[in-house]
Amino acid sequence: MGLHKDFMRDVDAFLGEPVAETSVLSENDMHHLPAAVQDYLRFVGAVGKPRVRDYHVHFTGGLRADADSPWMKTSANQFSSVDPAARLFLIKASRAGIPFLAYHRYVGLHATFKVRIASLLTVVDAKGPEMDRGETVTLLNDMCLLAPATLAESGLTWEELSGREVRVTFTNAGHTVSATLKFHESGALADFVSEDRSRTTDGRSYERLPWSTPIESWRAVGDRRLPGYATAVWHGKNGPFEYAHFENPEIEYNVVRE
Fold first, then answer.
1. Is residue 258 part of a domain?
2. What is the domain-level CATH number for residue 50?
3. d(Cα 97, Cα 62) in Å, to the nearest integer?
4. Domain for residue 21, yes or no?
5. Contact 41/148 with Cβ under 8 angstroms?
6. pLDDT in tens, 50-88
7. pLDDT by residue (tens digit) across 176-208?
8. Domain for residue 206, yes or no?
9. Beta bridge partners of 95
């Protein structure tokens, strides 16, 4: 319960802050973006809607430690802020009937990652430069998949690689990361690939590996589109390893302050 309490306390701290009025994202706000990114924002239905200042996400999925391990059913609760940039991500799962919680926290300059088994034993307590950079990549990934309206904001730089591929560079809290975005002809995002993230299983040793999140399907949610099914993949010397999948996220944008 400790990690759940930490998560709720952190979310409440953000929701207690006053916010400015949110403007609407227009076509004129996208002129500086590559054409493929503009098409993507139209595809997901972001144009003509309020800009995103924060978002609260619930979704289900699966995790596994390696290619030979069974999938563990998971549920995730996430709150992210755009300005200031922050990501709070709580996962609930169980292994061999034993429940555990994992909490990714990225607020201010630094990121941490903790895993606690049966609410008692902390088995992972990760922090440091590798975590800071890796969570910056994850924050950028969330912007692309879950809150694409934020791609029109400042703080991002763009390079067109081809008609359907672009490279985006993102700086937050002194950490600079980049990713290649690949798009379908329809405008949908097909994949996000970055080489700025590192894999760790214990929070002590890290291995820098290419990381991607291919989106296999999209679904209509009201007047927007969201990923229906996406995976997370490490690309190591033995080939790609899919270690997570997430489906049917439910998102609330610009959570009302009380």
1. no
2. 2.50.20
3. 15
4. no
5. yes
6. 999 999 999 999 999 888 889 999 999 999 999 899 999
7. 999 999 999 999 999 999 999 999 888 889 999
8. yes
9. 98
Q: List pLDDT tens digits, range 95-139.
A: 878 888 999 999 999 999 999 987 678 888 999 999 999 999 999
Number of domains in the chain: 1
Q: Please tell me whether residue 82 adopts helix, strand or coil conformation.
A: coil
* pLDDT of residue 38 exceeding 90: yes
Return d(Cα 53, Cα 46) in angstroms, integer: 13
- CA 54 from centre of chain: 13
pTM summary value:
0.94
Res 95: pLDDT: 81
Query: What is the sign, positive or negative, of the torsion defined by CA atoms of 140, 145, 150, 156?
Result: positive
Please state whether beta strands 239-253 and 189-199 pair in parallel, antiparallel, or not at all (unpaired): unpaired
What Rg, from alpha-carbon coordinates, does the chain have?
18
- Asked whether the beta carbons of 179 and 137 are under 8 A apart, the reply is yes
Instruction: Give strand pairing partners of 217.
Output: 229
Task: Report the mean per-residue pLDDT for the chain.
Answer: 93
Question: Distance between CA atoms of 60 and 221, rounded to whole angstroms?
Answer: 16
Full residue range of the structural domain in which residue 111 is found: 2-16+26-252
Q: Is residue 129 part of a domain?
A: yes
